[in-house]
Amino acid sequence: MASFPLDVNEKLIARSRTIGELLAPTSPFDKKCGRENWTVAFAPDGSYFAWSQGHRIVKLVPWSQCLNNFLLHGTKNVANSVNSRLSRQNSDSGQKSKPCEHIIDCGDIVWSLAFGSSVPEKQSRCVNIEWHRFKFGQDQLLLATGLNNGRIKIWDVYTGKLLLNLMDHTEVVRDLTFAPDGSLILVSASRDKTLRVWDLKDDGNMMKVLRGHQNWVYACAFSPDSSILCSVGASKAVVAAILV
């Protein structure tokens, strides 16, 4: 039998390996979960994993707990190597409390998720505010959920409590992204053809509205230095905006 060299994609597939599977519970009566799973996200430090369980429920799970569960299903070597790296990261970060699992009911269909972590040195870009409702410390970890009704809900990952309810979009929030510089600047992309920039260190106040798209906006991403935002949508074009 003749043999042929693998292309790049085939090599990647050959090297990849499934380490486990997480299943959402079926919920036929209250319709809170059990449908298609649309979005997942990792915390920047790898401590938490979140996914929409098919409707309005988001499950927040410590990633080390997921890996420990995978150990029970014959993937010991792979999971152990990842788990050891995660343990070193948590040790280096000096996390005080053990991560806990949370089930979050967002109240409507969840389309998008994003984690954001705070850097105290990054102050709010709104210089006229003398006090803030929330003061985020170095160990703050937030989860933003974009909903079918256009709302964005901000949750404390460690407690599972709702902190902010951002209401300005008029259609589905398709994507969310935090600035990677730790400033807690959040950008949302929506079917209402706009992107909105929120300053969570200024109690979630909206900084600006970006209207460069003529159709639905599907996704957005920051540049590594957090100065440029790129977005795509139904218009088949990439729109770039300078935010600094």
Structure description:
14% of the residues lie in helices and 35% in strands. The protein has a domain at 33-67 and 98-117 and 139-243: YVTN repeat-like/Quinoprotein amine dehydrogenase (Methylamine Dehydrogenase, Chain H, 7 Propeller). With 244 residues, the chain is of the alpha+beta class. It is built from three helices and 15 strands.
CATH superfamily of the domain at 33-67 and 98-117 and 139-243: YVTN repeat-like/Quinoprotein amine dehydrogenase
End-to-end C-alpha gap = 60 Å
Placed side by side, the strands forming the largest sheet appear as: 1-2-3-4
CATH architecture label of the domain at 33-67 and 98-117 and 139-243: 7 Propeller
Q: Which descriptor suits the 3D outline?
A: globular
Percentage of helical residues?
Answer: 10-25%
Low-confidence stretches: 74-86, 91-96
The secondary structure category is alpha+beta
Give a short account of the largest sheet.
Answer: 4 strands, antiparallel
Give the amount of beta strand, in percent: 25-35%
Q: How many separate helices?
A: 3
From N to C, what is the helix and strand string? HEEEHHEEEEEEEEEEEE
CATH topology-level name of the domain at 33-67 and 98-117 and 139-243 = Methylamine Dehydrogenase, Chain H
Counting DSSP E segments of at least 2 residues, the number of strands comes to 15
CATH class bucket of the domain at 33-67 and 98-117 and 139-243: Mainly Beta
Instruction: Give the radius of gyration.
Output: 20 Å
If you average the pLDDT, what whole number results? 81
